[in-house]
Write a structure and sequence with these properties.
Elements lengths: L4 H21 L2 H8 L1 H18 L1 H4 L40 H37 L1 H15 L3 H16 L5 H31 L3 H8 L4 H9 L4 H24 L11 H9 L8 H27 L6
Helix pairs in contact: 3-5, 3-13, 5-6, 5-8, 5-11, 5-12, 5-13, 6-8, 7-8, 8-11, 9-10, 11-12, 11-13, 12-13
């Protein structure tokens, strides 16, 4: 290949990337995003929370998961700006001498990891079952939808508690921190797959009667390729909205399970675990142990929910 061809192709790639970027800036979704200052603030806060979780090991003054770095002599120290505050504990410490700010950063990482993994698992399961139910219909559709109808009669937290309880009863003491995290992901995923399945099923039932699906069937494309390559992309709008809103719900579910003692252990706490630990010392006057993790959880959930509401309106032409 000549040296002149490579710069020419690189220039084409650069122009294509620049063209895509300009189209994104000129799109209706980005215009709707720029018009809403509340959405821009929510997006900035969400990005900030994600960055804090990603760079927790660089920003934290200690690793709260490492017992060797914890000293009981530093337990229950007030926040830095109070009379009894000490450096470098900006938000104070808990009963184990764990820096609250560091614990929030690492706990947020756990909460986001469980929430994102739970949403991915729920989405993969729900989208797959929704495609099968909507495309093939018949017995498969009836069985999947009846299971979904039965599950909808129970709150998601009860499903998660049931799955978590069954896993712990079967595995018992063999559950370590990472196994507990995996159980939480499965429990949350099995709690939220129904919304994806019902939404995708409805969209597929509309799309499969269109001409492009008939043309794909006519040329002999297999059903999985038609569903994944042609039908699924046309249902992604509602899926993105559900995934954004379900991320907040998944984080709340994990925090609830951890607060009830059925989630992450004290040695690897999430935000819900930190709130449960701090709640034991609230009436003793150590309010900061529960207040700051609660504020962090509330801010994270609120910002994600605001983004989900905006995305729902932006992707729905009837609401523009």
């Amino acid at each position: 290949m000549s040296d002149a061809v490579v710069p020419h192709r690189n220039a084409q790639v650069s122009r294509a990337g620049a063209g895509w970027f300009r189209r994104a800036l000129d799109s209706d979704i980005f215009y709707s995003f720029r018009r809403s200052k509340l959405t821009m603030v929510a997006a900035a806060i969400t990005v900030l929370f994600f960055l804090l979780a990603i760079f927790a090991s660089w920003l934290a003054v200690q690793n709260p998961f490492d017992p060797a770095q914890l000293q009981l002599i530093n337990s229950r120290i007030s926040p830095l700006w109070t009379a009894d505050g000490q450096s470098p504990f900006l938000l104070g410490t808990d009963e184990q001498g764990r820096d609250v700010f560091s614990a929030i950063l690492y706990g947020m990482r756990i909460s986001l990891a469980v929430g994102i993994a739970g949403v991915i698992f729920a989405g993969a399961l729900g989208i797959g079952l929704g495609l099968i139910a909507g495309y093939f219909g018949g017995v498969a559709d009836s069985v999947i939808m009846r299971i979904a109808d039965v599950q909808l009669t129970f709150p998601a937290i009860l499903i998660a508690l049931l799955v978590n309880g069954v896993a712990k009863s079967l595995l018992g003491n063999r559950l370590d921190e990472m196994s507990t995290l995996a159980v939480l992901v499965i429990a949350i995923g099995l709690s939220f797959w129904v919304q994806y399945a019902r939404t995708v099923r409805g969209s597929v039932m509309v799309e499969k009667n269109k001409d492009y699906v008939a043309a794909a069937q006519l040329i002999g494309l297999p059903a999985p390729k038609i569903m994944l390559r042609h039908v699924l992309p046309n249902t992604m709008g509602p899926i993105l909205v559900i995934a954004t809103i379900n991320l907040a719900l998944a984080i709340i579910t994990e925090a609830t399970l951890s607060f009830l003692g059925a989630g992450m252990p004290d040695t690897m706490p999430s935000l819900g675990t930190l709130i449960r630990i701090g709640n034991n010392y609230l009436f003793a006057g150590e309010w900061w142990i529960v207040a700051f993790p609660g504020i962090a959880l509330a801010g994270l959930i609120l910002s994600i929910n605001l983004l989900g509401d905006w995305l729902r309106d932006a992707l729905n032409p009837k609401l523009r």
